[in-house]
Amino acid sequence: MIIAAVGDVHSPKFLPLFLKSLGEVPVNIDAFILLGDIVEKNNVEAFAPVYQAIRKRFENVPVIGVFGNEEYRGFEREYYAKYPEISWLNDELRVFGLNRFKTCIVGTRGALDKPTPWQASNIPGILEYYRDLPGKIAGLLRECRDSAAEITILASHYGISYSNLKGEKPSIYPYLASQRMSEVVKPELVDLVIHAHAHNAVVEYTVVNNVPIYNASLPGRGRILVIEVKPRRSILNWLAKPR
C-alpha cells in the first residue's frame, strides 16, 4: 500500500511548494493524508486550493485529514461543513479498504509535553487534555487491533518523540512533541506513525519501539512524502502466535 502524507502547508504561505510537489507524487497512491496546519491562522477558505489540487490529480483517492494548531479548536465544524469529502479524524479512528488491505487510521492533533504559553492562557483544560490523550490514543489503537485491521497508521500533527527533532532548538522540544505519546507506539498496535509540526527538523525517518516514524512537514522535507506501508504488525502478531 502506498500513501502520500504532508503537513504544514500553511496555505497560502507554502502553497506554491505544495503544488509543485504534488506533481511529483506518483498517481498510483492508495490514500492522501493531510497532517494539519494546512492553512495559516485558521483561514478556512485557504484549504480549498489544497484540496482542489489533490482532487484534480487523484480523482478517486481517499483524502484523510487531521487538524493542526493553525486549524483552531472550536472551528472543526466549519471544516467539516465546507470540506465534507475529506475523512476528518479528530481523536478518532476509521477503517478503510486501501488497496487490498483493511486499514485502520487513528487521527489526532496530538499532544505536547508543555502547552505553549498562548495555549495555557487561552485553551481551558489543555494541560489535562495533553496529559490524558496518550491513554485515549492507546485505546483507539487497541480498537484497531481488535477490528482485525491488517495495517494500522497513527496520523498526528504534533510529534510523538524527541528522537527526530534534531535541527530544532532543544529548548522548544516540549512544544513540538510528546514523549509520553511514544509510550503508546508499540509494534503490536501500530505499523506506521506520521506527523508534521517540526518545520526545522532534519531527520525525516526514525524508529521508536520498532515502529517507523516519519516527519512529513512540508517546509522541513521540501516535498510530499510517499511511503510504502507494509503490514508489519500483522506479521509480528502471526510470528508471536504459538505453533
From TrEMBL:
CDD domains: MPP_superfamily. Residues 2-200 form the Calcineurin-like phosphoesterase domain. Gene3D superfamilies: 3.60.21.10. Signal peptide: none annotated. One of its GO terms (molecular function) is hydrolase activity. This is Metallophosphoesterase. The lineage of its organism: Archaea, Thermoproteota, Thermoprotei, Desulfurococcales, Desulfurococcaceae.
